Amino acid sequence: MQCGAWDSLVETPVVSMAGVKTKISTPIQKPDRFHEITSSEKSRISTGNSEVDSVLGGGIVPGSLTLLAGDPGIGKSTLVLQLAGDISKTKKVLYISGEESAAQVKLRGGRIKDLNNEFEFLATTDVDQVLSHAISSNYDLIIVDSIQTMASQNLSGAAGTTSQITNNTNNIVRVAKDSNTAFIIIGHVTKEGNVAGPRLMEHLVDTVLYLEGERYGLLKMLRGVKNRFGATNEVGMLEMTEQGLKAVENPSEALLMERQELPGSVIYVGMEGTRPILVEVQALVSPSVFGYPKRVADGFDINRLGLLCAVMQKRGGVNLSTQDVYVNIVGGIKLTEPAIDLAIILAIASAASGKIINTSTVVFGEVGLSGEVRSVNMSNLRLQEAKKLGFDKAIVPASVKGAKYFGVKTIADAIKTLK
Ligand code: TYD
Ligand code: MG
Questions:
Q1: Are strands 393-397 and 405-408 parallel, antiparallel or unpaired?
Q2: For an engineered disulfide with 247, which of 44, 51, 197, 416 has Cβ 3.0 to 4.6 Å away?
Q3: Least distant ligand from the CA of 217
Q4: Lowest-pLDDT range, 319-328, 356-365, 398-407?
Q5: Is 76's C-beta closer than 6 angstroms to any atom of ligand 1?
Q6: Which ligand is nearest to the CA of 76?
Q7: 3-state secondary structure 339-361
Q8: Could you report the per-residue pLDDT of 121-136, keeping only the tens digit for each?
Q9: Cβ–ligand 1 contact at 78 (below 6 Å)
Q10: First vs last C-alpha separation in the chain
Q11: Lowest pLDDT segment from 31-40, 185-194, 225-234
């Protein structure tokens, strides 16, 4: 193998078709009449955390598999420990850890305020133990922390390899459906491109949640990227405190708390799923020391930043060819919506000129290559949220109508509003 990647050789057992007969001996299964099938929303298991519930679409569906993925140290174990506690008030919960001993988990539990401790705990790395418990005991929920530490004796290869992860996940899926036990499985995201990581499992499970944020930042986002039982792209905001994770009911307020009105600071209204949030975009512009100007982005796509700088140069009359440009999205969150373009451009223009943007103004709008400002979806929802937080002015695409809104057609128009 020449690809130079670790763990990319996958064992593929050869299955002989020679002995397969056309005659089928298994008893035939009877299909149900669709209208006779019952399902009830009421059977969802509430997690006791409003943010987690809303990302899941109202709670955990019995018999479903949820993958909770994220960087190491982000707070996955802390979150599931809290969920185990809350859910065990009404349901039978088993928390299995292959990462930490019972004593270590107990120690962590000691930090969490009012942790309910009615759930059961098992420290093992043997996936067959996990499966047996699901089959033989009637747990409503089993938490597996993490899939990378689980190994089956029946498979070659160490825990965390591709074949172990896919086979073990497949077996858990089967057992979950048969026993109607819901599972939350933790998967670490590996920095090296997810070779043996959660991406392998995404298509096998019902729901995929990512816990994101900066490792040492306090705000964490729980993002639903796949959900068979609810809307995807819902986002829950959580805050890591000294006493565990807490739901943040008003994320915009939390994100804007330390804002200072200085050149280079712009408030952007983004949509995270169906919920608008206000975020501060910061830019810093300084003369390049070396010949080649630097572009650095934190929480934003670096290639898009390069493109927006080029558009500003060509269409906005802002010369950045000898300037380093740094952009930061406050709060350690990552934003990918094109609607942020105009906010990025105004933050850079403000930093470059030293002019500040009016303090009660928000900004959003997509920017095209010829410097035109394009309309974005859910403008009204964005403006309503801004208003709630005291931002009654806005620099937005021209299509948005409103007395105090500054509708702009081009980035040059937008830059002219800076004073
Ligand atoms: P952890 O939940 O172990 O992350 P993961 O399972 O995703 O690897 O750890 C999250 C971090 O949170 C860890 O550095 C310790 C910290 N922490 C708190 O700040 N407050 C708390 O109450 C707890 C339990 C952990
Ligand atoms: Mg952990």
A1: parallel
A2: 51
A3: 1
A4: 398-407
A5: yes
A6: 1
A7: HHHHHHHHHHHHHHHCCCCCCCE
A8: 999 999 999 999 999 9
A9: yes
A10: 60
A11: 185-194
